[in-house]
User: What shape does this take?
Amino acid sequence: MKSKLLLCMFSIVTITNFGIWSRSAGVQNPPAPAQSEPAVDDKEKIAEIHKLMEVTGSAGMAKQMMQQLVSSFKTSSPGLADDFFDQFIAEIDTNELTDLVVPIYAKYLSRDEVRELVRFYESAAGRKLITVMPQLMQDSIAAGQKWGMGVAQKLKARIDNREKSEKEKKGKDGNK
Assistant: This one.
């Protein structure tokens, strides 16, 4: 029960952080940390990062994703009390989460890059991306699951055929 709870919490935190990053940054692999940029003590850069997170709706998206995950975990983990999950959701402070993520953005993005991202997400194309991103992610996850199932079935068939061939070979070798 305790390990299930820890796995649940780890999953929520991991997916939430992925959601915030992918939603805001719009890239698959993070680049190396921004060079020659001051860390988090640059008030202007911090303000720009907060603005980026605001225009992308990252904090709200993170909370929404956690609520969806909690709902899923409630269904798949009937041994855990609903009260735990309700209290977990009530404890979510998106400002606290944002404060945790801002230094990470500061580490990987220069002030100019953050400004460019803000300009993009304030543009018509950026607002459109923000609007369709939840459905894009949902459809992409579904496509990835379908693809993964196909790969798994293909590999299972290959393994089954290899095992069958090995058994047949052992059977023939045993009859000699």
Remarks:
- Helices lie at 2-25, 43-56, 58-76, 82-91, 94-108, 111-122, 124-174.
- Residues 2-122 form one domain.
- DSSP finds seven helices and no strands in the chain.
- The CA atoms of residues 7 and 85 lie 14 Å apart.
